[in-house]
Amino acid sequence: MISETTRQTIYPPHFPLQPQFVDVLGQRIAYFDEGTGSKPILLLHGNPVSAYVYARLIQRLAPDFRCIAPDLLGFGLSDKPAQEADYSLPRHIALITEFVRLLDLQDIALVVHDWGGPIGLGTAVQEKERYTHLIILNTLTEPVMRLAPVYKLPFHLLARTPRLAAYLIRQKGLFQKMGVAVMDEADQQVYFRANPTPETRAGIAAFPKMIPHHAHHPTTPVWRDILAQVEAWDIPALVMFSDHDSVFRAEEGERLARRLVQARFQRIAGPKHFLQYQAPEELAVEIKQFLRESHR
Q1: What is the CATH number of the domain that holds 285?
Q2: Given CA atoms 207, 200, 119, 258 in this order, what sign does their dihedral have?
Q3: Is 44 helix (H, G, I), strand (E, B) or coil?
Q4: How many CA atoms lie less than 13 Å away from 263 in the CB half-sphere?
Q5: Rounded to whole angstroms, what are the CA distances from 142 to 45, 118, 127, 210?
Q6: CA–CA separation, 100 vs 94, rounded Å?
Q7: Lowest mean pLDDT across 23-27, 90-94, 109-113, 141-145
């Protein structure tokens, strides 16, 4: 379980957002719940970060909306089972689905990024009546993910050598260090403090193994079904991809937007993978305009 000391020391001094906690399917899930607006915005993060990655965006949206951002299982201040087998796409979806039910969220604008995409969209298609808008940031867009050439060799090497993967990702924290390298040092430390030991990095290590990189991967049919439902769903969607992400390229986001029933694509110039961190003001402006123009 999470100690009080950990809760108090993970964030920088004077960090304005206050984490809350709820028990979800036997796991303690931490989350931010900021703002007094009647319209809830649910923000879901990916790997290897936490809800903290949305802090800058939340502070810009909270004056007008209620912003709810949970730490996924294994991240931030949420519980961290030590076995990678405790993490899967269906498991994450089940936890967030129950989280939404426990908070009784309705009329939701959903913001997803990275692994928050499959998790959040997988949650939304189960209870479509709760959701009014989709805002999709740099995430998986195809049933089978096409790895960029620069990642193919290291990914396949790690996939075929689980001991090496465990050593680099869990023992040495390599994925953490590489993943948040674009951030300020103080913000990087938030993630290092949240997952400081090999035992606490199981969730981080599990996600790369969940990537649907071939047709017979266990994640592929789950994600294919979610995508098919999203593409047939008549819901306003805003797809925003940054133009310097080497993992999820802007062209992929543009193709996804064309497949959705009613979607607009916006290319965000400048940021790399974490556009909500590097361009929060631009994203806030786009989100506010989108929600005003497509009010439901």
Answers
A1: 3.40.50.1820
A2: negative
A3: strand
A4: 23
A5: 19, 11, 22, 14
A6: 10
A7: 141-145
Q: Are 61 and 41 in contact (CB under 8 A)?
A: yes
Give CA–CA dist 34/18, Å, rounded.
8
Using CA atoms, how far apart are residues 57 and 286, in angstroms rounded to an integer?
Answer: 11
CA distances to 51, 115, 202, 239, 292 from 286, in Å: 20, 22, 35, 10, 10
Range of the domain at 206: 4-293
Spatial CA neighbour of 141 closest among 278, 265, 279? 265
Per-residue pLDDT of 33-67, as tens digits, reads 999 888 999 999 999 999 999 999 999 999 999 99
Number of independent structural domains in the chain: 1
Beta bridge partners of 28: 23
**Strands of 131-137's sheet in order across:** 19-24, 27-34, 66-70, 40-44, 108-113, 131-137, 236-242, 262-268
